[in-house]
Amino acid sequence: MESLQCSDFMKLKLEIFILITIISLGLFFSSFRIVKQKALIIRDVEQNTRTVMPVPEREFTLSFIHSVEKTPVYEIYNIEGDNKLTLKETKYYSLGVGLPFSEANGKFSNDRGEFDLKFNRTFNFIPIRVSPIPRHQINIGGKTYELLDFAKPEDLIIISAVDKWYVKNIRRR
């Protein structure tokens, strides 16, 4: 009889545990969702480090100061479904060495000194030798990061895209 009571007690404990687990999961999923999102991997080859950065809108901008013209250049990328990086647009503010100036490479426009070239160039990854002189930066969702925050000067970084799973607070706006 004593073993029967022990078995009933264990069964009751298990049922309570299952009930608490179900309630906890219900409360969790009423406020949070597990979502798949695009992210960038910024890998410093020399230091063997990786930084993962979510890119919820699938768009990011790389910017730098042109070495000859000394003016800013903005390269606007989209992350595609297959995690390829597509350069959609380049904006710059002077014409000179290495800067396109015709529609041979895409749709070119000049709006009072703001030059814009729209096209589609796809890459598996983007290699950049980071340096403080051109002030390499990446902008994701309106927030700008210095690439030197991820690597030492003259280190090679490789930027690529992946799918990552995140817990998202659906009640936060």
Describe, in plain words, how this protein is organized in 3D.
- It is a single chain.
- The protein is of the alpha+beta class and 173 residues long.
- Helix content is 17%, strand content 48%.
- It has one domain (37-164).
- It is built from 1 helix and 11 strands.
- The strands form 2 sheets. It has a 7-stranded antiparallel beta sheet, with no helix packed on it. A 4-stranded antiparallel beta sheet has the order 2-1-11-8.
- The radius of gyration is 25 Å and the shape is elongated.
What is the topology, as strand order, of the major beta sheet? 6-7-5-4-3-9-10
Give me the secondary-structure category: alpha+beta
The topology string of helices and strands comes to HEEEEEEEEEEE
Q: DSSP helix count? A: 1
β-strand amount: over 45%
How does the SSE layout of this entry go?
Elements: H1 2-31, E1 32-44, E2 49-54, E3 59-65, E4 72-79, E5 85-92, E6 107-111, E7 114-123, E8 126-129, E9 137-140, E10 143-146, E11 156-169
Antiparallel strand pairs: 1-2, 1-11, 3-4, 3-9, 4-5, 5-7, 6-7, 8-11, 9-10
Question: Can you summarize this structure?
Answer:
By secondary structure, the chain is α+β, with helices and mostly antiparallel strands.
